[in-house]
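Please fill in the sequence for the structure shown.

STRUCTURE ENCODING:
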C-alpha cells in the first residue's frame, strides 16, 4: 500500500477534483491532507473486511492531484516509521 505510486495502472486523464464543501476557500492544504487520510483509512478498512479497494481510488486520485509530491513522500515515510501524526 505505501510503496506503490498507483493502486492500479495509471491510465487516462484525471479530471480536476470536484468542489468539496468541507473546504470552501482556495487554500487546499486541508483538502489534500484529509484525502490522504481518507485514502489510507479506506484501504485499511477494505483490506480488513476482505473487500475490493476500488472505492478508495477516488481518494487516491484527489490527494495525488492536490498534494505536493514531497509532502506525500514525507507522510509515507512517517507512516512507515510510526511517527505520522494523523489517525489512520
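FILLED IN BY: designer on duty
SEQUENCE:
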Amino acid at each position: 500500500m505505501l510503496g506503490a505510486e498507483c493502486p492500479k495502472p495509471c491510465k487516462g486523464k484525471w479530471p480536476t477534483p470536484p468542489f468539496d464543501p468541507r473546504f470552501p476557500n482556495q487554500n487546499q492544504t486541508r483538502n489534500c491532507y484529509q484525502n490522504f487520510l481518507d485514502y489510507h483509512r479506506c484501504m485499511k478498512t477494505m483490506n480488513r473486511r476482505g473487500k475490493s479497494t476500488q472505492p478508495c481510488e477516488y481518494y487516491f486520485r484527489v490527494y495525488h492531484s492536490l498534494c505536493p509530491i514531497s509532502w506525500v513522500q514525507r507522510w509515507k515515510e512517517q507512516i512507515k516509521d510510526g511517527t505520522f501524526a494523523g489517525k489512520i
